[in-house]
Amino acid sequence: MKLRLNLATSPQANNRPFLAGAVLVGVLALIALGLLSYSAYNSWVASRDLRAEMAGWESKIRADQVRHEELQSYFREPHAQSVIDRSAFLNSLIAERSFPWTKILTDIGDILPPGVRVISISPQLDNGRAQVTLQVGAASEESKLQFLEAIEKSNVFSDLVVKSEHNPTELSSPDRVVLDLTVWYTTTPPAAAAPSESEAPSEAKAPSPESKLPPPSEAKVPPPAAKPPSSRATVPPPSEASKATVPPPSKASVIYGFGVIRDVNLAESDGHAEVNITGSSPLTYHKMRLPNPDRLVLDFASTHLTAAQNHHITSNLDPVRDIRMAQFTPEITRVVIDLLEPAPYQIKTDGNNVIVEFAPKVSGR
Known about the structure:
By secondary structure, the chain is α+β, with helices and mostly antiparallel strands. It has helices at 16-75, 78-97, 101-111, 141-153, 201-205, 207-210, 216-220, 227-233, 252-255, and strands at residues 116-126, 129-138, 157-166, 177-185, 259-269, 272-279, 285-290, 295-301, 303-305, 312-314, 320-329, 332-339, 345-350, 353-358.
């Protein structure tokens, strides 16, 4: 028989539960470490792909920037500027020819009350709308108020601004008061917008017989046979009010026949630069303001330059840098006023002269 005797002062401790727990914790720690390592690897792979994609986009951006700089350099070249000027001029002519100029007179006639007459009218196209400068005479205060109220209630006229009100200069005038005003004209009033696809065809066609708007085909592009609107499209300059009264089409060739640009000169008048263009007859022009570099372009319809005329004038008067003239097309003479910086100006006519006045530079700015 065997007897197990423990001669130690204390009984031997049993560490098996501790060892089992330690092994379990170690296994769990290894599993967690593996999971964290796998997640970190996946994040590194994803960020590597993202960095590669970002590097590709940055390379494309740099290539586009280089291409953009090349295009900017190309468009600054003289021949490219000439093409841009020509395209801007042609686009402006297309916009003017597609605008129903004669309908402005019809709509004004519809709202004129008794005792009010139009003395002069000068329309100017701007982004699909026409800014109409009017001078009207009224026989009484009541008729004047009726006319202003009719414009404010009109669907095609908006943004009325009365610039001045004065007595007529002619003693024999039937008018008691003369108004100078500007108003914006739109071919499509806000209330007559195009119908949506959900509307029935009968609802879309119902307003057209009763409204005063032109048919859609007339509002966008006039038919080839509609010569009066197209002939007026290139005629009405902002400052030639007497010519913007739409003469009969049969007289258009007589009024706007070919002329000659006899002289272009630059002078100083009352402290500001003044460009004077003289023709053999009253001049019809179309103006454009172009940037980069800043310049004012005047195209004179049905005119020619003389062979002996100086086609380049150097300026020593701010803000004009120089003046260039050329036969832009066989029927159009172009005068380009290059500017040192953007400057306010106004254009006025005096007989056969077109005068461009630049405001004097204010000191301290």
